[in-house]
């Protein structure tokens, strides 16, 4: 499990320079000596081993540790390639693979770019040293740098390391209420958005520490704590030791495990009130005794956080019960409650919590003939027609001022089953030819209004970034826009049908015997059965309805579809576990020894006149081509 989480930590793990720096007071004079081709670094006479500096295209490249350790510079990493060094108010931004460096925002072009060599990040020396106001002396291969330590904690939002010159020797999370000694020689590489798990790793990926926090409702026994630990085992991992230990008056359950790939792991579990803490260290080694190198950290862990301890760095991402989420690819930032999560699978920003609340964002280009008023009116008309009677109510309109412009808000309540109701806020803002849609849905029983306003007040859209990076992004699947139809034809099975262009095909090869499209309000499913009788199919369909806890609501009837004779059956499924009740209308044709079944599935909430007419139009377009 440890190694699986560690794969998240990409390039940042190579910045091992964030380990505790050479000791020294803030502002203290620093003399650095190193040489091209030599692994020896000397800082005020104290020697250490580094990756050998080298020259390329006239630029001297050194390990980034020379900068962070010797000068006490702060460091952050963005998108696994953009490095920001901060030192006494000076900012130096470098990008792996790019020859452009920005010093306090001013671009400078170099003859060589930062790169990763043998898992170590190598950076151009002169531009950084000059930016820090230090003196650089080059004599042959010998390099001498004279400067001073950073005057304080140099940081630009960095939570990835601790500057020991600011007196920080411990790390913890004030919201999740834990603390420990900073794990030396490891980098804080990744953590969940809300801090429920945190991971460190060394530069070569052969040592790692993780902390997981889990909410529990009951007091766990010794056996249950051990079971919780075992849930984090991964692959071929198996236990070799199970003990109960006491450290500093705290009782832990401890398991040591190993796997068949040469890794040993130590886990400790402790419960404090309704929180379960699991601390784990892993190491690639030939003997479990090597785990002794992490005992200092493991023994220092406490399920508590002392806010008065000035040596303790707080890495919490939670402020006033909210987390700041960023989606830089969409130019979006938003603050959401701590119990919210990011949907990491979606292509556009989407967030949710376990109470079924959802926040989505989308960006699309505004058509030339469109305007904010037209888009808003179209969305309102579509939503009104999209719900069946008794499934939507209390629609209201309002305006809202966001950080980036004026928005229109459509608010209404909806339900899937007439029992549980939700409140929906559709927010539309148009800026510089782009429409931004922010959708917030919450259970009606919740106090939604205040939270909605708090969330919207935090929304920050980088409209300049969108304008520079998004071009012609038409929302081709927007159900509120009628994009016409497209005719799909099957040569093999000799039929055609007209489908809405904004329907999404999952199985869309019409030369296969099954086709499936999502319609936005349900599903259209087409199946072809060779050598099957209508009576056999109807019997099979009835059986499947009964197995699915549905019921036939309209018996077999003869219908005419586009001049063709067909049979129709209607069923309803309302006992859907974690799903939406729906109507299934199935049309059955026979031709050339084949049976054709068109199954139109529409959710109850969307079984409206407009949607029924749209689907009937599609069904009526079905015809045989030979």
From TrEMBL:
Pfam families in UniProt: Cu_amine_oxidN1
UniProt keyword list: Signal
Gene3D superfamilies: Copper amine oxidase-like, N-terminal domain
InterPro entries: Cu_amine_oxidase-like_N, Mao_N_sf
Residues in Copper amine oxidase-like N-terminal domain copies: 43-145
Domain of life where this protein originates: Bacteria
Keyword Protease: no
Signal peptide from the UniProt entry: 1-25
Name under which the protein is recorded: Copper amine oxidase N-terminal domain-containing protein
Organism listed in the record: Paenibacillus oenotherae
Lineage, top ranks: Bacteria, Bacillati, Bacillota, Bacilli, Bacillales
């Amino acid at each position: 499990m440890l190694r699986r989480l560690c794969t998240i930590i990409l390039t940042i793990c190579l910045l091992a320079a964030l380990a505790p720096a050479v000791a020294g007071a803030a502002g203290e004079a620093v003399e650095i000596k190193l040489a091209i081709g030599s692994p020896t670094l000397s800082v005020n006479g104290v020697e250490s081993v580094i990756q050998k500096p080298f020259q390329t295209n006239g630029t001297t490249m050194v390990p980034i540790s020379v900068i962070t350790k010797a000068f006490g510079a702060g460091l952050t990493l963005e998108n696994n390639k953009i490095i920001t060094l901060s030192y006494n108010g000076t900012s130096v931004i470098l990008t792996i693979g790019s020859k452009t460096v920005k010093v306090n925002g001013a671009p400078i072009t170099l003859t060589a770019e930062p790169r990763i060599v043998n898992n170590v990040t190598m950076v151009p020396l002169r531009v950084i040293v000059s930016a820090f106001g230090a003196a650089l002396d080059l004599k042959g291969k010998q390099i001498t740098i004279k400067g001073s330590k950073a005057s304080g904690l140099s940081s630009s939002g960095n939570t990835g390391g601790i500057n020991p010159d600011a007196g920080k020797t411990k790390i913890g999370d004030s919201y999740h209420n834990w603390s420990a000694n900073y794990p030396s020689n490891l980098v804080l590489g990744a953590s969940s958005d809300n801090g429920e798990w945190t991971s460190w790793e060394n530069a070569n990926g052969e040592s790692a520490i993780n902390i997981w926090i889990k909410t529990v409702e009951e007091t766990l026994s010794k056996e249950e704590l051990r079971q919780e630990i075992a849930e984090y085992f991964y692959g071929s991992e198996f236990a070799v030791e199970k003990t109960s230990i006491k450290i500093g008056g705290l009782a832990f359950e401890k398991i040591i495990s190993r796997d068949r790939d040469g890794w040993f792991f130590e886990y400790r579990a402790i419960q404090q009130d309704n929180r379960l803490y699991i601390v784990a260290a892993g190491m690639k080694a030939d003997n479990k005794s090597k785990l002794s190198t992490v005992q200092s950290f493991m023994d220092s862990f406490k399920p508590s956080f002392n806010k008065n301890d000035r040596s303790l760095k707080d890495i919490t991402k939670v402020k006033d019960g909210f987390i700041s989420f960023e989606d830089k690819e969409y130019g979006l930032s938003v603050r959401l409650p701590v119990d919210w999560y990011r949907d990491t699978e979606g292509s556009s920003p989407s967030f949710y919590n376990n109470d079924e609340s959802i926040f989505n964002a989308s960006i699309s280009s505004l058509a030339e003939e469109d305007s904010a008023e037209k888009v808003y009116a179209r969305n309102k008309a579509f939503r009104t027609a999209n719900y069946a009677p008794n499934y939507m109510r209390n629609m209201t309109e309002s305006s809202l001022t966001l950080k980036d412009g004026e928005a229109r808000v459509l608010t209404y309540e909806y339900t899937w089953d007439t029992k549980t109701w939700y409140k929906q806020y559709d927010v539309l803002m148009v800026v510089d030819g782009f429409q931004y849609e922010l959708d917030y849905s919450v259970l009606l029983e919740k106090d939604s209004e205040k939270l909605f306003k708090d969330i919207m007040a935090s929304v920050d859209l980088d409209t300049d970034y969108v304008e520079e990076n998004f071009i012609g992004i038409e929302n081709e699947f927007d159900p509120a826009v009628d994009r016409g139809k497209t005719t799909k034809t099957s040569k093999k099975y000799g039929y055609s049908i007209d489908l809405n262009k904004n329907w999404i095909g999952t199985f869309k090869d019409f030369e296969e015997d099954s086709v499936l499209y999502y319609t936005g309000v349900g599903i259209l499913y087409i199946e072809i059965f060779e050598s099957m009788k209508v009576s056999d199919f109807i019997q099979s369909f009835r059986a499947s309805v009964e197995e699915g806890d549905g019921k036939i609501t309209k018996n077999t009837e003869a219908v005419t579809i586009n001049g063709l004779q067909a049979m129709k059956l209607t069923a309803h499924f309302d006992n859907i576990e974690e799903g939406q009740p729906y109507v299934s209308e199935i049309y059955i044709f026979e031709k050339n020894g084949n049976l054709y079944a068109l199954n139109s599935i529409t959710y109850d909430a969307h079984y409206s006149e407009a949607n029924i007419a749209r689907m009937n139009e599609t069904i009526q377009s079905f015809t045989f081509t030979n």
